[in-house]
Amino acid sequence: MQSKGSSSMVSSMVFRTRISSLLISMFATFASFYVAGRLWQDAENRVYLIKELDRITGLGQSAISVDDTLKIIACREQHKKLSALEMDLAAARQEGFTSKTSSDTDGAVSKRRPLVVIGVLTRFGRKNNRDAIRKAWMGSGATLKKLENEKGIVSRFVIGRSANRGDSLDRSIDDEYRQTNDLMILDQVEAPGELPKKAEMFFALAADRWDAEFYAKVNDDVYVNIDALGATLTSHIDKRRVYIGCMKSGEVFSEPSHKWYEPDWWKFGDKKSMNSSFGASNRYFRHASGEMYVISGALAKFISINRSLLRTYAHDDVSAGSWFLGLDVNYVDEGKFCCSSWSTGAICSGV
C-alpha cells in the first residue's frame, strides 16, 4: 500500500504531464496560425506592391528603370497566372475536380490568346476609308468576329473625340460605333498634332484590354493582307521583345515652314545641313515606317506601364521608335511591311 506522500507525487507528475501536453498543443496551434498568417501576408504584400507600382507610375510621381519595368511586367504576368490558377482551383472544387475546358466542334479550345490586335488610326471625315477597309480586309459584324475567333486577329478603328465635346462629329462617331461595334474611341482630342499621343494611347489601352502576342498600328489608307500578316507574325512568335516594320532613318527638318518640321530637331544634331535647301539636319534613329508596324506583347505592356513618362516627337513612327531605344529589342526590318510598293507576298499596300 502506497504512502500518502508517494500518492501525492504521482498526482503531481500526472498534472505536470497534462500541462506539458497542453502547452505543446497550444504552441503547435499558434505556430500553425503564425505560418499561415505569414504566407497570407506575403501574398497580400505582393498584391499591394503591384498596386502601388501601378499607382506611382500612373501618376508619374517616380521614374523607374528599364530593368525594374521589365521585372514589373514579369511579376504582373505571374500574378495573372496565379489568379487564373486560383479561379480554376475554385471551379474544380465546385465541379468535383473535373476539367471542363470549352471546345468547339473540332475539339480545339474556343478561347485562345489573340495573335494580333490591329489598331487602324483614323479621324473625322474618313468614313469612306473605314467602309472601304471593312469591305476589303477587316470585315464587319459576323465576319469581324469570325476573324477574331478563327485567326486570332482583332481589328479596331482608333479615333479621338471632338474638341467641342458632344457636337455633330462626336455624335456621328457614336452612331457609327453603335452600328459597327468596331471602333476604339479614345478620351483625347482628335487633331493632327496629337497622332503620336494617339498611337501611344492605342498601344497602352489595347495591352490593357487584350492579352495578345502582337499589336499593330496601321493607317486608314492601307490595305492589309491578313493571311500574309498572320504567317509572318507566327514566325516571330517565339521572340519576347520584337519590333517589326519597314525600317528607315528619315531626315530631321528644322525649318518650321517645312511639312515634316520637328520641333525637337536640336536633339538630333546641328540645326541645318549645308547641302539641303529645306533646312534638314541629321537623320532620325532607326525606326519602322508609320504606315504599318508591329510590336510584341511585352513592348505594348512596357508602353502601358510607362505611358505617363514616354516622350513623343512630331511623328508617331519616330515616337514609337524612341520608346524602344533603351530596351533589349529585336529589330526586324521586314520588306513586306513597306506599304509604298506592292509585291508578291507583301503584307500591306498604300491606297
From TrEMBL:
Q: Which Gene Ontology cellular-component terms appear in the entry?
A: Golgi membrane
Name-wise, this protein is Hexosyltransferase
State if RNA-binding is listed as a keyword.
no
Which domain of life does the UniProt lineage start with?
Eukaryota
Pathway as given in its UniProt record: Protein modification; protein glycosylation
Q: Which organism is it from?
A: Theobroma cacao
Topology versus the membrane: Single-pass type II membrane protein
TM region(s), chain numbering? 21-40
Instruction: Report the sequence similarity comment from the record.
Output: Belongs to the glycosyltransferase 31 family.
Alphabetically ordered keywords of this record: Glycosyltransferase, Golgi apparatus, Manganese, Membrane, Signal-anchor, Transferase, Transmembrane, Transmembrane helix
EC no. given is 2.4.1.-
**Record has Protein biosynthesis as a keyword:** no
**One Pfam family of this protein, by short name?**
Galactosyl_T
* GO function term, MF aspect, one: galactosyltransferase activity
> Which coenzyme or cofactor does it need?
Mn(2+)
Q: Where in the cell is it found?
A: Golgi apparatus membrane
